[in-house]
Amino acid sequence: MKIERVTAGMSIKRSVDAGTEDQQRTVRAIIEDVKENGDRALFDYTEKFDGAKLYSLKVTQEEINEAYEALDDEMIKVIREAADNIAAFHAKQKRETWLYTNEDGSILGQKMTPLDSAGVYVPGGTAAYPSSVLMNVMPAKIAGVERIVMVSPPGNDGRLPAGVLVAADIAGVKDIFKVGGAQAVAALAYGTESIKAVDKITGPGNIFVALAKREVFGDVDIDMIAGPSEIAVLADDTASAKEVAADMLSQAEHDRRASAVLVTTSQELAQAVARKIEDQLMSLPRSEIARASIDDYGAIYVAGSMKEAVQTINELAPEHLEIITENALELVKDIKHAGAIFVGRYSSEPVGDYFAGPNHVLPTNGTARFAGPLSVDDFMKKSSIIMYSKQAFDKHGKKIAAFARLEGLEAHARAIEARND
């Protein structure tokens, strides 16, 4: 890997894919087809894109039972424990309805209400992601969403991976459907004979899924348009080059367009990490993907001071940030922009991906400047509560009417003055 000096105004090289015009047209056509033809379109696209000829979209209890039989008992225990950790963390996020009464007797507040329904997209393809099931479903469950629908593309055998089904069952998902791509997003947004429409769609997917989510936004809510995975490591000379290299590759193996960056104050560490990445790539099963990621979107930057290194991290606003330095926890206060912050040697990014409890659905492409992880709040609505007393109305009515006339809205003013007759 090329080692560069930190410079003012530098930015991380990211893969930002808005889709080609052909891809956008394809997605719009699929959405319209699903809206018009419902399940028939889903069956057709599943056969065309996934190579699976299905006669029923919904996963049966028999398939779930077979998934449990296919997994090792210890692995099932790990999934259960991860689900418990995720639930415990997200339970601390839940906010309750609140009210307060002013001295004039008026009551103001905020009512918290869970969404009626949510759809979770779980990607398929080159890997199975039971962790995505847990990270999307558990906050919705904690929020109190009554109906959670999961969709995921089947293999050409017409089945979903055992780990995905077991995770969904442990998380309490009752409606699981074997359909993926833009057609699955369309089904969640508008409904078909088998799949009832939902209020919000969450979960990552390929470019067609991302474009479909963008297309249906407004008719339903979505979580975010997620880009390829990113990791930045902030390290000094106390860090292990072997461990830093392994952590960078843990994200590089996700996607050819994933980004892995090291920002360090140590030239020696920078050189050692570059060598270790080359060594570890040789034995990595997904080395072709990781190699493309490292070559096209990887970087090592050397900063003149820790202050300069932290400033660089804030400019990058990475999805995942590892801090592997002396007194790492003290640096957290200086980090303004990062989706998730992993502190210290033993907080390798996969700890958060799978087990610790915080959500791994995170802002990418620099959007950590204004966004955060998926949370319980994403599955709840806030309603303002306003109950004015007569005393408060008499005191402020003229002010309110005057404000309305300032904006040229006479009927607003008269609505206030009608109560003075």
User: Overall mean pLDDT score?
Assistant: 95
Instruction: Tell me about the largest β-sheet.
Output: 6 strands, parallel
> So what's the overall shape?
globular
Task: Show unreliable segments.
Answer: none
Q: Class of the largest domain, according to the CATH hierarchy?
A: Alpha Beta
Strand order of the largest sheet: 1-11-10-9-12-13
Please give the share of residues in helix: 40-55%
Distance between the termini: 79 Å
Classify the oligomer.
single chain
Active site: 319 (proton acceptor), 320 (proton acceptor)
Cofactor: Zn(2+)
InterPro entries: Ald_DH/histidinol_DH, Histidinol_DH_CS, Histidinol_DH_monofunct, Hstdl_DH
EC number: 1.1.1.23
Question: Can you walk through the features of this model?
Answer:
With 421 residues, this protein is α/β, with parallel strands linked by helices. The protein has three domains: 3-16 and 227-356, Rossmann fold (3-Layer(aba) Sandwich), CATH 3.40.50.1980; 21-95 and 115-222, 3-Layer(aba) Sandwich (Rossmann fold), CATH 3.40.50.1980; 388-420, no CATH class. It is 44% helix and 16% strand. It is built from 16 helices and 14 strands. The strands form three sheets. Strands 1-11-10-9-12-13 form a six-stranded parallel β-sheet, sandwiched between helices. A hairpin with a 5-residue loop joins strand 2 and strand 3. Helix 1 (21-37) packs across helix 8 (207-216) and helix 4 (73-91) packs parallel to helix 5.
